[in-house]
Specification:
The structure holds three protein chains of three kinds. Chain A is built from five helices and no strands. In chain A, helix 2 crosses helix 4 and helix 4 runs antiparallel to helix 5. The N and C termini of chain A lie far apart (62 Å). By secondary structure, chain A is mostly helical. By secondary structure, chain B is an alpha+beta fold. Chain B has two domains: 102 residues, Beta-grasp domain (Ubiquitin-like (UB roll)), CATH 3.10.20; 111 residues, Fumarate Reductase Iron-sulfur Protein, Chain B, domain 2 (Orthogonal Bundle). Chain B has eight helices and seven strands, in the order ββαβββββααααααα. In chain B, the strands form two sheets. A five-stranded mixed β-sheet of chain B has the order 2-1-5-3-4. Chain B has a two-stranded antiparallel ribbon with strand order 6-7. Chain C is elongated. The chains are: A mainly alpha, B alpha+beta, C mainly alpha. Chains in contact: A-B, A-C, B-C. The interface between A and B is large, with 42 and 56 residues. Bound molecules: protoporphyrin IX containing FE (HEM), iron/sulfur cluster and FE2/S2 (inorganic) cluster. Protoporphyrin IX containing FE sits at the interface of chains A and C.
Chain lengths: 144, 260, 124
Amino acid sequence: MAEQFSNREGIKGMINPTRYGLHRVAYWLQRLSGLGLLAYLIGHIYETSTILNGKAAWNNMLSLTETPGGHLVLVLVIGMCVFHTGNGIRLMISEGGKGVGKPGQPEYPYRASSLNSKQRLCIWVSIALAALAMMYGAGVLFGN
Amino acid sequence: MATVEVPKEQKVEPTTPAPAPSKPKTITLRISRFNPSEHAETKFEEFKIPVQKWTTVLEAILYVKQSLDHSVAVRYSCRQASCGSCGMKINGKPRLACYTKVSELESNVITVEPMNNFPIIRDLAVDFKQLFSTHKKMKPFIINEESEVQPGTKEFVQTPKDLEKFLQFSYCIKCGLCNSACPTMATDKSFIGPQGLAQAYRYTADNRDQGKKDRLKIVDQSHGIWRCHFAGSCSDVCPKGVDPAMAIQLLRGYMLGFRK
Amino acid sequence: MVPEYYLVIKMKESIIMKIHYGTALGAVALVAVHILMRLSQKFSDSLQYQNVLANYHFLPYALMLEVILILLSVHGFNGLRVILLELKQGVAYERAINYGSIVAMIVLVAYGSRTILMAGMGLS
Ligand code: HEM
Ligand code: SF4
Ligand code: FES
């Protein structure tokens, strides 16, 4: 089957978080934050390696990162880290088959029990904790 | 045959006139037209359709076929959400055309397109080869050495509680809406998909079945169960309350050792 | 289904993903300690050259950094591998992704370990 007729939704469809409710938003945020954190990890390992070149090199690096722009990136990293961790714990529990509801006789109007309110609460709590941590982090970083 | 005289005083005259049939509203139906053999671009054709409160999207499409343009390709059969033929993208989301009323969409413009992640045959009709062959690979039958009915064997006993463990997953009508909503399916052409994975669980959870080991092995591959990230979109669109996302996580529970 | 693409180290996908979850769990606790270290004093002070070097000289902390480095490299690059496997399919492509992510893990761990080792031993 020629690929152009396969009608796959493609990356655009994969990353579109608007159509299928909160779980799909969480999926998207988990991916985005995972990739963001990986990028930060690589950068972080590079920036800390400058310590091997002595005090001047280290301070030079600090003068680049200890800036409003650098702090903004850190605040974002804090948010990504907290969301990814919180939502990651929800995913590990759920993907082990816990907290996704019990099979039963579906009743009209069908509401999927894996999309239950506890699940949605956990996602909101992860988002809220990320927001709080970002505010706290911004307070520490921009405070003085 | 005896005729029954209705006593005069029992004849009930309607006191209020029957409600006038509600005036049909007119909506615009936009149908995606595409014919791979002509190698043409997808184009949308617009039709004005009179609809009532109860008109389904499938009926609107059939109105086009009857009265306006009979060449529109669409697959349907039961018209009652039982056969799984009429899945399509309606105003951006995969739904069954026969199970979606125009009025519930709350829009005067209805756009119908073929489901994503399935090859297009023509217009709204898509190709289910991959879904069916994947379904088959999940061994969708009871695996049990004693399943042959022979003299001296008895039927398996199953309590209502045993039944409940898989019943909802057995309601799957293979409509493919879940596969078309799934974000992994959007780019991964080797992924088993929510439909197949949910059916792997349906048979594994059946206490008459002994094929758990086989099926766990089949889904434990690089484009198998681990490509599900519980985005829940399959369960959001399933028209039968199957909740494939739940089935997949329960199946994965066996593999992570949370369940036995 | 497409035939199982292989790794030379033929690891079942379930084993790989158990490692993915395991590294995540390990990282939760250790990353928390790592971040709290930055907040145990004034943040900008914690980054002063001498303070940071002192961290590297303190063996238990240096060991913890090494463990975090390994856990997060494995978790992060396996996460990237998963995303890339889902984006495109094909025998050669998937083999490249599988090996490439192992190489990336090794390179990142080696580069980070160099900092931890040399800062821990040499500089003062
Ligand atoms: C410390 C706490 C962390 C926890 C609890 C955690 C948990 C998880 C879990 C459960 C997943 C799988 C999600 C799924 O099934 O789709 C995941 C994916 C991922 N994680 Fe983490 N993680 C953590 C930290 C990190 C860090 C620091 C990085 C960056 C180096 C990272 C990068 C990724 C990536 C790239 C993915 C793939 C995303 C995807 O497949 O959608 N994670 N994480
Ligand atoms: S699980 Fe639901 S959406 Fe998927 S094919 Fe079966 S009935 Fe359709
Ligand atoms: S026509 Fe059978 S499901 Fe819609």
